[in-house]
């Protein structure tokens, strides 16, 4: 990927650091956008469609890990975490939450740029960019970034469990998601045999979202295997 076509979103509440990174990245041909809060970061990713996100953990409004988890709800864009936290446990948590790399402050600019280039190469190799967080299924619309569902332009109230199931299916649009994968992700490994839980919650989701819950067009059951989300 050529640097002059690479978009980098830098999220940090330290004006001097934002300025230093913007100057250095612009000088090397990157297109740079910045955000100083978690809320602004989530909005900027959808608007700017970056090839890589540089994310500080110590943001003033939303913890950086929460921002990271929000991003991972709808995009696989590479994320480099910046943090003054040097404890190994903090690094493990960030990487397990979906970060691609972890850079400890203060850092050398050349090392940071090398890590940035590596993240860009990984993203290019996998064809990753930030996808649209809004999925229009026709009968209903799912906004993965805002964690909202609307039907006929009216908000639909989902329980956290219902949202967890729907989000997982929508993120894997068109693909079969096994019962065990959903149970493990939403409830945890202790519930892998509780397929009846899924039947109950899928029935509830269909009542709320499908035009004809008895003959669903979007939340499809693959008998004995799992479920699949498809658009109209």
UniProtKB/TrEMBL annotation:
PROSITE patterns: OMPR_PHOB, RESPONSE_REGULATORY. SUPFAM superfamilies: C-terminal effector domain of the bipartite response regulators (SSF46894), CheY-like (SSF52172). One of its GO terms (cellular component) is cytosol. Pfam families: Response_reg, Trans_reg_C. The keyword Transcription regulation applies. It comes from the Bacteria. It is found in: Cytoplasm. The modification 4-aspartylphosphate is found at residue 56. Keywords: Cytoplasm, DNA-binding, Phosphoprotein, Transcription, Transcription regulation, Two-component regulatory system. The lineage of its organism: Bacteria, Bacillati, Actinomycetota, Actinomycetes, Mycobacteriales. The keyword Phosphoprotein applies. Signal peptide: none annotated. One of its GO terms (biological process) is positive regulation of DNA-templated transcription. Residues 132-231 form the OmpR/PhoB-type domain. It comes from Gordonia alkanivorans CGMCC 6845. Residues 132-231 bind DNA. One of its GO terms (molecular function) is phosphorelay response regulator activity. Residues 7-120 form the Response regulatory domain. This is Transcriptional regulatory protein KdpE. Member of the two-component regulatory system KdpD/KdpE involved in the regulation of the kdp operon. Upon phosphorylation by KdpD, functions as a transcription regulator by direct binding to promoter regions of target genes to positively regulate their expression.
